[in-house]
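Exercise 3.2. Students should predict the tertiary structure of the chain below and write it as structure tokens, then compare their answer with the key that follows.

Predict this chain's 3D structure.
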Amino acid sequence: MRIRIVDAFTDRPFSGNPAGVMLLDAFPDDEWLQKVAMEVNHAETAFAHRLPEGGEADWALRWFTPAAEVAMCGHATLATAHVLATTGAHQGPVRLATRSGVLVATPREDGSITLDFPTAPLTGTAVPDGVAEALGAEPRTAFDTGPNVGDLLLELPDEKTVRGLAPDLKAIGAYSSRGIIATARAEDPSRGYDFVSRCFFPNLGIDEDPVTGSAHTALAPYWSPRLGSAELTGLQASPRSGRVRVELRGDRTLLSGRAVTVIDGELLA
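Answer key:
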């Protein structure tokens, strides 16, 4: 069976967020899918198979981290859409049936792909006791991001603070079901991005996620009213780094970026 490794939210190999992608005839049992994701050992591995014509979706899609199946994943969806488009498995917009409903991925003439995702519902909350010590910085605000994303969103004082974080990963796992999104305004928007973020997901076996599409469904509604624009660009300031263009459309958020295939091989097991 063919397996590809795709770097998402980047146009350069060895940056962005790598995802495994497998196009299958049908989904095998969950134990096998989880073992493959563990073997690939990237933040997510995506598994997809074609659906019968005439339904509400064209392909079924599931995402697994090395430790668990997840309800939403942006970068592995972008990676899957990239593989479908570049291999000719699907032409034009593709409708993907997922645990988060039907998601649409649309290839653009400039080579990017736009994902149509549900906007995360943000609920303000008090900064939890102990989170500043666990994160290593004092948050200004805290928001719950709802069940699909499952993170605690924290705004920090500035970009430098976000970039310098070295959190206690074991400790921050206690504050949400998935992990923590740390964010701040860009120090210099002329550099091509409006806000920065970093994402830590120890509860899913991911110490730091390189570029997190799903987190941007919460970052878009957070920053849009604060920065006065529905269209923004986020920089995820992980060591690999990557950029996500966002457009807030009410209960939907459009996420746009590029992807590049770096490995194309055969799974023998």
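Discussion points: Residues 94 and 105 are 5 Å apart (CA to CA). The helical segments are 30-40, 74-87, 131-135, 146-149, 159-163, 169-172, 216-227.
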